[in-house]
Amino acid sequence: MDAIYTAVATATHGREGRAVTNDGKIDLALAMPVELGGNGAGTNPEQLFAAGYAACFGSALGLVGRQAKADVSEASVTAEVGIGQQGEGFGLKVTLRVELPDTLDEATGRKLVETAHQVCPYSNATRGNIEVDLVIE
């Protein structure tokens, strides 16, 4: 694959540090969530992954919607990223909650969401590695 765009971010001090992009548009304090024993005083990698996945999936849905001549401009995507013990290490799981406009029938909506899941770069990156559940609301 030839990259059309490359994002660059640097994290220092892991989950208790800072994440900064090379262009300065993101400069965030990182902190372990309370649920993992931290103080929760900053964002965490799971939140950043959830935001990125939700945005990317929403764009993929918009693309397939335009191709199918279906208006999904009012759709929203919420990504829930869970982290937990998996074997000797840790793993992630994702639930994508897609709220579609009432103007779409259920079958069309499901087909668009499933097609977006095939197109989305985050979905392609996680396929076979992370459990991803699609929920249409």
Describe the structure.
The protein has 137 residues and is of the alpha+beta class. It has 2 domains: 1-43, N-terminal domain of TfIIb; 45-136, GMP Synthetase, Chain A, domain 3. Helix content is 31%, strand content 28%. The strands form 2 sheets. The chain has a 3-stranded antiparallel beta sheet with strand order 1-2-3, with no helix packed on it. Strands 4-5-6 form a 3-stranded mixed beta sheet, covered by helices on one side. The longest helix is centred in the middle third of the chain and has 23 residues, at 45-67. It is globular and about 45 Å long. The N and C termini lie far apart (34 Å).
The N- to C-terminal Cα distance equals 34 Å
**Which residue ranges are poorly predicted, with pLDDT under 50 across at least 5 consecutive positions?**
none
- Sheet-strand content, in percent, reads 25-35%
Label the CATH architecture of the largest domain.
Answer: 2-Layer Sandwich
Cross-sheet strand order for the largest sheet: 1-2-3
Strand tally is: 6
- Tell me the radius of gyration: 17 Å
Largest sheet: 3 strands, antiparallel
* CATH fourth-tier homologous superfamily of the largest domain: K homology (KH) domain
Specify the structural class. alpha+beta
CATH topology of the largest domain: GMP Synthetase, Chain A, domain 3
Q: Estimate the mean pLDDT confidence.
A: 96
Counted by DSSP, the helix tally is 3
Helix content: 25-40%
CATH class of the largest domain: Alpha Beta
Give the helices and strands as they follow along the chain: EEEHEEHHE
